[in-house]
Amino acid sequence: MWTNWSGGQRCRPVATARPLDEAGVAGVIRRAAQRGQTVRPVGAGHGFSDLAVTDGVHLDCSAFSGITGVSATAGGSAATVRVRGGTTVGELQEALAERGLALPVPLDVGAPTLGGALAVGAHGSASTVGSIAEQVIALRLVDGRGEVRDVPRADLDAARTALGALGVVLDAELLVVPAAPITVTRAQRPVDEVLDPAFWEAHDLAEAALFPSSGTALARWAGAAEGEEPERGVGVTSAGATGRTALGGAVVVERALPRLAPSLNRVVSRLARTVSATGAGHRVLSDPPAVRYEQAEWAVPRELLVPSLRDLLPRLADGLETGLPVRMRVGPAERGWLHPAYGRDTGWVAVRIPRGTDPGPVLARTAAVLRAHGGRPHWGTRHDFDAVDVAAAYPRSADFGRVRDDYDPDRVFTNPALSRLLGD
Ligand SMILES: Cc1cc2nc3c(=O)[nH]c(=O)nc-3n(C[C@H](O)[C@H](O)[C@H](O)COP(=O)(O)OP(=O)(O)OC[C@H]3O[C@@H](n4cnc5c(N)ncnc54)[C@H](O)[C@@H]3O)c2cc1C
């Protein structure tokens, strides 16, 4: 039995293959196709959605890890690295740091693999610099016929965020930047301050955590706190050590007594003290979860980020408040045809439901509100989109379908999620 990180997705693949080389990957796909079986690549199982769920063959890419090449771009202001698809984001960020390099936008979670992060368009929170998928300048995969393909430029915007529908990503060439320490500050802020677009314009890298019924948000941004001497090399988690312990405890109490959630959350949101730290972005932003949870994240047009939250927060405060805050982030328009931020500057709204609490009502209300604000779901989180929604929300979805017909004509990579989202 395979289970994802949150425990919300389970399946019994007919087999799990862990090939050690490209020929091995191609062989797994060809054999499965000959047997009429389907194949789903699987990374670290950190997706909340059912994209990796299959009763066919699970192709575990974890043996495919590491950086296989580094080259300076013209002028030396950036570089590119060739990274294998099974490399975790954490391994990648550490390996880059050892070479004096960094991802343009650090990710605060290390477990997802590059293949998994690309498949769903995993993102951080910077208003002008895009996700890992946006940094892809070349990509190699094994397609549905078991052929190794260097994805041509014409197909790259389809392949950079492909839900695992075009093939198994072997490696990708990414744009990276010279490493430079950043100072991250976390502090309490009035909710009205983080719901003011000026807050996001003032910080290129920022995010906020908001409890639906608390007037206090926990904000994190790149830049030193006034007059504070930043601590060196420690993580500045969104809730802080005390806040995290309180969060964990509050979640247990709220599961038993949900009506206490609003008052407990108000207390928790006021516990986090102001702190700053300086160091490598992925280290100072590292934010390991205090508890396991289910998540729905939606991408709305940037200009609708604040109106969507002004709509959502009271709707969640009305009997659906959980012990975990709503997370607010931003990102620029992306080129990936199926990336949730395709073609528009974006605001991200993530709602989390602690394990043990029925996620259904919160997921349904969140989807209803954010759909009304033009929302597109993060493919790695829980949502209710189907093929009709995809066709309506993604102007290049038909073009993606044509590329899919070329890379996987016999739908070797299909599963119930892809059938629902992309049709067969
Ligand atoms: C605690 C936690 C924190 C998170 N934080 C963030 C965050 O800050 N930002 C964000 O955007 N997301 C975040 N996520 C979501 C996560 O990044 C995505 O769900 C990501 O897809 C997980 O990668 P994975 O390797 O675990 O992939 P899986 O969950 O194993 O697979 C996800 C998809 O990728 C496909 N896939 C996997 N490997 C390959 C490959 N080699 N080739 C082709 N397709 C492949 C699978 O078929 C599936 O469709 C978080 C998740 C968790 C659990």
From TrEMBL:
User: Looking at the keywords, is Signal present?
Assistant: no
The residue stretches assigned to a coiled coil in this entry are: none
List each copy of the FAD-binding PCMH-type domain by range: 9-179
The regions listed as transmembrane in this protein's record are none
Gene3D superfamilies recorded: 3.30.465.10, 3.30.70.2520, Uridine Diphospho-n-acetylenolpyruvylglucosamine Reductase, domain 2 (3.30.43.10), Vanillyl-alcohol Oxidase, Chain A, domain 4 (1.10.45.10)
The record's listing under InterPro entries reads: ALO_C, FAD-bd_PCMH, FAD-bd_PCMH-like_sf, FAD-bd_PCMH_sub1, FAD-bd_PCMH_sub2, FAD_lactone_oxidase-like, Oxid_FAD_bind_N, Vanillyl_alc_oxidase_C-sub2
Keyword Cell membrane in the entry? The reply is: no
Q: Which UniProt keywords apply?
A: Oxidoreductase
PANTHER family assigned: D-ARABINONO-1,4-LACTONE OXIDASE, L-GULONOLACTONE OXIDASE
Protein known as: D-arabinono-1,4-lactone oxidase
Q: What organism does the UniProt record list as the source?
A: Actinomycetospora termitidis
Taxonomic classification, please?
A: Bacteria, Bacillati, Actinomycetota, Actinomycetes, Pseudonocardiales
